[in-house]
Amino acid sequence: MKFSRISLITLAFAATTALTGAATAADVTEQPYVHDWTGFYIGGHVGYGWINLNGKYTGEDGEDFIDDEGGTFDLDDDDILGGAQLGYNYQMGDIVVGIEADVSFVSWEDELINGTPELVSFDTDYLASVRARAGLAFDNVLVYLTAGAAWTDTNYYVNDHVDDTDPSEFGDIDLDDFGGVVGGGVAYAFDEHWSIRAEALYYIFDDKEDASGLTHDSEETDFVELDDIFVARVGIDFHF
Fold first, then answer.
1. What is the CATH number of the domain that holds 214?
2. Are 226 and 65 a contacting pair, CB within 8 Å?
3. What average pLDDT is seen over the chain?
4. Number of domain units in the chain
């Protein structure tokens, strides 16, 4: 089943609320565990993501390949993802700052076929980032914001005739692109070494590429654009 961005945001909020609730549900008469967030950590994550591309492709006989009334097509997909992260935190009183690198492996893809049949499609294999983090520690709970640079491996394809092997009938564009990412989350430390997290990340690429020379039917106004990616995920970290 496909999920909307609103559904993803709702899931991320619910996971964040659950983690915060777990931290406050302990017996108030007991001395709370105070975690020292300073140090290196490594971990893994799973989640759900959404991606969108749009563009314009002129097929045979000069007819625009469109999916809506606005003159462009939309390609999008949403699916599960999984990956790993590593980073370093430094705590100063209640303030925690740090840096984190991560990679998520995905299998996003979508295609549109018209009556010719002509085809436009894309696929994405991974999503990665290097981000700064800053937040506030409440004993063993860390609430943080994050921002940094992002990369993605996305490829776009067109084919004037799906079953034709003539090189002039098909082409592709490598959308391996650099962009930015912002987000936030909450982490909960069980003990000195283990913590869990829930977070949401919004990736901004806005990479628009000229697609006028992909096939012999392409026109000067043809293009493809990687817009944005949204990810909600949970993870676990081991602190050294």
1. 2.40.160.20
2. no
3. 83
4. 1
